[in-house]
């Protein structure tokens, strides 16, 4: 049997049936309780099994109430009643107690405490009286100072003046302070002699290393080749003629000796 719609209370057939909030609805009857806006399964909010839209969903926030004289009076009255009840309960709890039977163990502990207290007080009084007796029987100390006996010192005899002067004592001056010699500074190493410049014109030089020309105006040579007609062009460069090849051009001067 087909159920009834929760809104219009008419029969709901399966084609137009919408189940939500534990109730069957027509799709056209599923709307907001306040503004009757049509809702869907994604846009509704249920409250007490009734559909609402976002704007009319009932809030559960607390509302502030102004403190009127009547509210203040009731608040103070409740506070006094709670204090009175607390005080009366506290007094009743003090009046109530639980009686405990004295068993042999509790009686033994109680007797031990009494004996220990009386024994300590008796020992204290005995020790005090004994110390007073010792102080009373001890003799008073007497001073042990004795006056020194007089000595018979001989009278001083006159000394005859002496006309011979005593030799003057030699004065030995303190040795002069000899400071420790300062360590001599280490000699600085002699600077290496600068390489002798190549002769400005003429002369003959021998190659120390192989060299391959890196430009058109340079010459290539091998170790041991001789250079003639040497001319200095710039610092580190010369113009020479290689005897083995007969080529003439620029070469680095530090490759020759």
Helix vs. strand class: alpha+beta
Widest sheet: strand ordering: 5-6-7-8
Element order: H for helix, E for strand: EEEEHHEEEE
User: What's the total helix number?
Assistant: 2
Global outline: flat
Helicity level:
10-25%
Largest sheet: 4 strands, antiparallel
> How big a fraction of the residues is strand?
5-15%
Low-confidence runs: 160-165
Total number of strands: 8
End-to-end Cα distance, whole Å, is: 125 Å
How much is the radius of gyration in Å? Answer: 66 Å
Q: On the 0-100 scale, what is the average pLDDT?
A: 77
Can you offer a commentary on this structure?
This protein has 257 residues and is α+β, with helices and mostly antiparallel strands. The chain is built from 2 helices and 8 strands, in the order ββββααββββ. The strands form 3 sheets. The protein has a 4-stranded antiparallel beta sheet with strand order 5-6-7-8, with no helix packed on it. Residues 160-165 have low confidence and may be disordered.
